[in-house]
Amino acid sequence: MQFKRQDAFVFLLIGLILIIVSIANLAGFTRWVSDRSRFLFMTALLIAGFLLSWYGWTRLSSLKKEKQDQTWWQFLRVELIVLGFLVFFGLGYWLLPRETREAIRKILHDFLEATHAIKSTH
Question: Which residue pairs from 62-66 have beta carbons closer than 8 angstroms and sit at least 24 positions apart in sequence?
Fold first, then answer.
């Protein structure tokens, strides 16, 4: 039950992220949509976001019907706490100076590259 709930929440969350990204691009905030093919790609991404969100919400609603004695907050307590942490750390990372973000990104890239090299030797 918990894994089904978490999967449904992830579908809903990824769908909402796709919707936000595609609307921001289609509205011209990023100036990325400059021709017809990019417009069609962002439109397809928007539709995919709506479908993922709808699927996630439908699954969450059907799972919630099995636990009618709980409120939505009680039902999604763990997922909402994790979402809060992700938003907190994401905003913290975004508020760092650009040089610090690039240094962190480089360190993580080097770490992943080193672990990949270790795995491929076996």
Answer: 63/1, 63/4, 63/5, 63/8, 66/1
In sequence order, what DSSP letters do the residues of 37-83 get, joined into one string?
A: HHHHHHHHHHHHHHHHHHHHHHHHHHHHHHTTTS-HHHHTHHHHHHH
Q: Does residue 102 form part of some domain?
A: no
Instruction: Note down the domain range covering 43.
Output: 2-75
Mean pLDDT across 2-23: 90
Q: Would you state the pLDDT for residue 117?
A: 77
Domains held by the chain: number: 1
Give the pLDDT of residue 122: 57
- Evaluate whether 16 touches 51 at the Cβ level (below 8 Å): no
Rounded Cα distance, 25 and 27, in Å: 5
Assigned domain for 9 exists:
yes
Q: How far apart are CA 79 and CA 49, in angstroms?
A: 19
Cα 65 to the center of its chain, rounded Å: 25
CB 46 within 8 A of CB 23: yes
